[in-house]
């Protein structure tokens, strides 16, 4: 073992979780305007398993083709141990980030290089597990809700409300002044979501969601998929759909017959240290809580992916890399 190598989880071929292997690789060197972060925890997000399997859920015309071998992961929380030329950061700072997204983050590793602009100082009140859980999920909800014009108001329905993006969207909508927040998830998550501030809860396993909700102003859909159109009747004419993931919303029917406004399906979350710092302030204030419900050691990244792909997760899962 040498000081210029590190442990990382990589894949050399696309496939099932078993393609993830922990091995020694060269330690990265920070470039201009970058820092080297000693990673204490790395967040787990859907793009990680999409990339691992070759993005089969994305239409072929826009499907990314990442180069192999690949170190997955874009959410990191850790300590600055070195700085590149021109970096304004200081060695020893506690930081976290959504790294180089969209793009290649390489977070499943002991060390990661991160541009200054993507970093936020991790508040002393937050631990590294929370710091790793927040970036992608929190920025997705925060940036998308801010992207909507006008700002969300009236009744907002969050589909997939118990998941990583969903449970944060419920809280951000509540903090942002939504008149009513309706959380859609399976019944076992009702107490969790009501504690986070949901005004109403709908168990999608008990029957069609549209039988329980009508006249909503916003559908924030974190699930998407081939059945996404089934939720459209919850909206009033002129209501908006905010699709976080790809889904079949039957565009002509939605915009024509139902008179709905479909959000920009090409919208993409972006790395932003400034936005992440704003989220941190909401978490520290108590307005937003990050639910970390699964922690796996780095060596068990494949097991973490297997669990994630079973679905029905509550909150976020995180890889513990180092104390």
TrEMBL record:
InterPro entries: ADH-like_N, ER, GroES-like_sf, Lipid_raft_assoc_Zn_ADH, NAD(P)-bd_dom_sf. Residues 15-319 form the Enoyl reductase (ER) domain. One of its GO terms (molecular function) is oxidoreductase activity. This is NADPH:quinone reductase. It comes from Kitasatospora phosalacinea.
């Amino acid at each position: 073992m040498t000081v210029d190598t590190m442990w990382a989880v990589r894949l050399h071929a696309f496939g099932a979780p078993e393609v993830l292997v922990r091995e020694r690789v060269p330690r990265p060197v920070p470039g201009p305007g970058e820092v080297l972060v000693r990673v204490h925890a790395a967040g787990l997000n859907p793009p990680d398993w999409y990339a691992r399997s070759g993005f089969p859920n994305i239409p072929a015309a826009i499907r990314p083709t990442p180069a192999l071998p690949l170190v997955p992961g874009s959410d990191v929380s850790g300590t600055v141990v070195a700085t590149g030329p021109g970096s304004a950061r200081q060695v020893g700072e506690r930081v976290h980030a959504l790294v180089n997204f969209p793009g290649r983050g390489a977070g499943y590793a002991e060390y990661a290089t991160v541009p200054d602009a993507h970093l936020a100082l991790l508040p002393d009140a937050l631990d590294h597990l929370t710091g790793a859980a927040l970036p992608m999920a929190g920025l997705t909800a925060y940036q998308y809700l801010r992207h909507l014009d006008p700002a969300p108001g009236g009744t907002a329905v969050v589909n997939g409300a118990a998941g990583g993006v969903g449970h944060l969207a419920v809280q951000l909508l509540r903090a942002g002044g939504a008149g009513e927040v309706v959380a859609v998830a399976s019944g076992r998550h009702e107490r969790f979501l009501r504690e986070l501030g949901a005004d109403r809860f709908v168990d999608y396993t008990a029957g069609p969601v549209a039988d329980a909700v009508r006249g909503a102003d916003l559908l924030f859909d974190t699930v998407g998929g081939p059945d996404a159109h089934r939720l459209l009747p919850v909206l009033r004419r002129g209501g908006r759909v905010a699709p976080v993931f790809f889904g079949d919303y039957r565009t002509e029917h939605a915009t024509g017959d139902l008179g709905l406004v479909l959000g920009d399906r090409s919208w993409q979350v972006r790395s932003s240290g400034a936005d992440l710092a704003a989220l941190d302030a909401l978490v520290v204030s108590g307005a937003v809580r990050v639910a970390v419900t699964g922690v796996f050691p780095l060596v068990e990244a494949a097991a973490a992916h297997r669990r994630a792909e079973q679905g029905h997760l509550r909150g976020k899962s995180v890889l513990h890399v180092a104390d």
